[in-house]
Amino acid sequence: MTESVNGDDGPLVVVLLEHAIHRIRAELYALSDESFPGLRTRHYRLLSMVPPGGERLSRMATTSGLTKQALAQALQPLEDGGYVEVAPDPTDGRARLVRLTGRGRQVNDTVRAHLDAIEREWAGRVGEERYAVARAVLADLTPGPA
After folding, report:
1. Rounded to two decimals, what is the model's pTM?
2. What is the DSSP secondary-structure string of 40-107?
3. CA atoms within 13 A on the CB side of 21
4. pLDDT for 104-130, tens place per residue?
5. Quick check: 66 and 72 in contact, CB under 8 A?
């Protein structure tokens, strides 16, 4: 898995990122198996998108890149599992608001702790300073809010 372009000495950044994503996904699947049966990466991502006061379905659809219908379908198991509640927005009865339940907040806290542990492990392997620089570079490459 050390694909390179034009004889470069190292793997493509895509391969490196795929390895990191594979590790994170494996951790999340293990977390699902032990604590949150049935949740998959897409569910953890959606739960992480819900701010403390809740979020409108339309805004979540835009942020997630899903259609409203696809988002509603993806949220259904989270609602059925007691991780979120979807209700009319009290400020606009036409809009629907997604809110985390206590169980949803527990998931987010647990996932954050697991991801923090992975980052600490990576920093331990390459050194705190090198990891901080790598993380900052990736953050700089991430597009800001539109």
Report:
1. 0.81
2. -HHHHHHHHT--TT-EEHHHHHHHHT--HHHHHHHHHHHHHTTSEEEEEETTEEEEEEEEE-HHHHHH
3. 8
4. 999 999 999 999 999 999 999 999 999
5. no
